[in-house]
Amino acid sequence: MSEPARPVPAVLTEDRVRELLPLPAAIEATREALIAQAAGRVTQPGPWHLEIPEARGEVHIKGAYVHGTGYYAAKLATGFYGNTAKGLPVSSGLSVVADAATGFPVVIALDGGYLTDARTAAAGALATDALARPDAEVVALIGPGIIGELTLAALPVLRRPSELRIYGPTGSRARAAAERLAASHGWTATVAPDARRAVEGAHIVITATPTRAPHLDGAWLAPGAHVTALGADMAGKRELLHSVLERADVIAADDVTQSRAVGELQYAPDLPAVALGDVLASRVPGRTDPAQITVADLTGLGAEDAAVAARIAAAVL
Fold first, then answer.
1. Which option is the CATH number for 123-301: 3.40.390.10, 3.40.1410.10, 3.40.50.720, 3.30.1330.60?
2. Average of pLDDT values for 116-128?
3. Which of 18, 119, 161, 308 is the most exposed place for a label (fewest CB within 10 A)?
4. What's residue 1's pLDDT?
5. What's the CATH number for 10-115+303-316?
6. Residue 171 clears pLDDT 90, i.e. is over it
């Protein structure tokens, strides 16, 4: 007797993935993943990272199963920072989605890193909305790369700030990002000459750089400011000087244990922190006073990767 035929996974191009997962859908899926993670309803291995120093390359492999869903997923995402000089995108990657009942792969998403970028931007927007003052109007973006710009594109799904300041070491790139975001969202957008002048007086600060040299000083933050830090996702990476965390009244992490290992909290492991998913689910308070300084330390979760990948699988199967 012949063995039953194995299912053949659907192969999706990056363009198709982008159609299936616009930013509002990414925000919804990422919110569910963060809440499930904080509640202990996720099975996932620890993140696996590989560095390729000669190419200024990073390889990230993550995956998870969010309990009660029909799929689990694994993804490979890369950031090769020398690609810009070669005229190539910095990010790439793919995701594999499998049936949680049979284990068979059902979707291979050749997403070019979009799923990682979208869930990172979604988490950044969710954290900012959950912790920033309700009347926040002025946003500073440090690092106008793919992640930074996409996070600013996601934020208007939840918030409507009016003024944007951008700083990046490459002025032409910062100006191009400012023009695109202003045209898309009607913001007043300016390019700051340095990080300090972008941040001083801002209500919301978003940092999205893969640096190991911290560049945001707590002394620059106005009372009531919120910081969303997206760049630290490996041991040794760091965007925030210790003064930022020292001034914070509330620190929320996508996963507190992971943040203490690879996020900003690896440099301040004894400071108290709460799970962002618990704040989103109203299980613990976030900001309780307009004058508080709040920080979100986001390292990227396999649960988020699984949630956005499952969303596209459900849409095509």
1. 3.40.50.720
2. 97
3. 18
4. 58
5. 3.30.1780.10
6. no
